[in-house]
Amino acid sequence: CSVCVLDGVDVVYVCRAAVSRIVSANVTIGSRLPAYCTAMGRAMLSRLTDDEIRERLEQSSLDKLTPLTVTSKRKLMELVSAVRREGYSLLDQELDLGLRALAVPLAIPSAMVVAAVGLSVQSHRVSAAALKAHLPVLLQGASQIRDGVVESQRNKALRSIPA
């Protein structure tokens, strides 16, 4: 499970809790991945305007990292629009063969940072349907993170009021 922020055309990992397995993704805090082919990237892109999304896609290299990677700007716009409607992003082996991921945007009011929270699994261990079954827990976690940020912002604003 990870939290990422959007930085230009990349997602940047700011929080990560990984399971201990012999084979696992070597993603650490500060790791950068392209937004167009990651579940968290598409979740964050869905929070932008269509013009902002197009601009970021224009700046992206849109490399075909696996045979399943979507690189068509038109198709990517359709996929991000679907994420915006459905509230989540599910990617299957577009970033790396054997990697499946689910993510939701962190909708933080008045935040300058666009963020997302997501889960990634080995595709041979967890089906897309089984991963999607975790969506309610992921949405609840995103809501708790949002509420914590809002409370922190409120407390900071209260502390800045002169006594």
Question: What keywords describe this structure?
Answer:
37% helix, 163 residues, 5 helices, globular
Q: What is the structure about, briefly put?
A:
The chain is of the alpha+beta class. It has helices at 39-45, 50-59, 73-86, 128-132, 135-159, and strands spanning 2-7, 10-16, 32-34, 89-92, 99-106, 115-122.
Task: Report on the architecture of this protein.
By secondary structure, the chain is α+β, with helices and mostly antiparallel strands. Helices cover 37% and strands 22% of the residues. It is built from five helices and six strands, in the order βββαααβββαα. A six-stranded antiparallel beta sheet has the order 3-2-1-6-5-4, sandwiched between helices. Strand 5 (99-106) and strand 6 (115-122) form a beta hairpin. The mean pLDDT is 89.
Our measurement of the CA-to-CA distance between the termini, rounded to an integer number of angstroms, reads 42 Å
Helix percent band: 25-40%
Structural class: alpha+beta
- Helix and strand sequence: EEEHHHEEEHH
Query: How many strand elements?
Result: 6
- Tell me, briefly, the overall form: globular
How many whole angstroms does the radius of gyration measure? 16 Å
The percent range for strand residues is 15-25%
Q: Segments where pLDDT lies below 50 for 5+ residues?
A: none
Number of helices: 5
Mean pLDDT rating: 89
Biggest pleated sheet = 6 strands, antiparallel
Question: Which strand order do you get reading across the main beta sheet?
Answer: 3-2-1-6-5-4
